[in-house]
Amino acid sequence: MRHPEKKKASLASQILGVPFWIFAVVAIAGGVITWHWKGQATVEQAILGDVDLFVFLVPRMLGGMILAGLVQVVLPPEIVAKWVGAESGFRGLVIASVVGALTPGGPMTSFPIVVAFYMSGADRGALVAYLTAWSLLGFQRLLVWELPLLGPDITFYRVLAVFWMPVLAGYIARQLPISSGPPPGAEVTR
Amino acid sequence: MKTPGFDISLVFIWVMVAVLAFLAWRKGDGRMQRGLRRGFEMFLVNGPRVVVALLAAGFLSYLLPKALIAEWLGAESGWQGILIGSLVGPFFPGGPLVIFPVLVALLKAGAGLPAVLAFLTSASVWGLHRILMFEIPMMGFRFAANRMIASLALPPLAGILAFVIIRLLGPPGGFGS
Question: In this model, does residue A132 exceed pLDDT 90?
């Protein structure tokens, strides 16, 4: 690691942050309770099953995360905002859905983008389609979490069941008689 | 559970990595290095969390009352499982790091795919913590209400479609159903 000292420290504190310790405590408590209720053999069986899963998981998760990092530098949010902001109609809903599915990162990435879309003239149907696609079909979540953990079959079945939903949600949102003023988050994104 | 070391999904992920790395490299300006580093750091941060989360989920799948879950969310649970899955989804806090280990535990404990997909869809489009922490503060209450009403039917629809797809294509591999 050639990172400067400060960067390294912040990364380490992120790695051993609150989520890590919450899961660690649950894992230890779960292990103790399993040992107490079901005996040592079950604990060993559970750990062996997890080791199998890790071997399967690590190369996929590493690939997925690097992919997510690359998507963020190849596909800057400003350009994404331009694509959807300019479109409307059914085509706009489809484009918003595709862009939503391609947007990496958590809500701290996607909601600023939604505010940016709104300010650049996207209608609420496109924004709802975008958010629905991001939360249901997020490419990053699919690659990093779903494919490795649930397997290709379940992932395929799920995508088959939900891929059309963002466009439907966007269409319904457009028909609803609820209009909204400028978003409170507009100040946040400058 | 089957754990093949090598399959098409692994090839696909790394081919995509190569393609995007090439696209980023062509732009020069150190973009590729930044993307690679961001991804690798993401892995360093999330890897250990996932290890402990899966350890926790592994134990939980032995501790969960399997008979109860099979009855509530199992393959035989039908409408009731889809409804329960849809109703509990919004109350699950956290992102994929929390939800996917829970899904693994549910499936291992015998929950059916229709109920699990209703649950995941509901947690995705109606996740209350995200609505309260991000959507309402940034987009306003009316926008959030509009979106929530527009996606009201999606979780049960996902469950029903999963049921139909299993009928048409047979049970999925991996966890069975």
Answer: yes
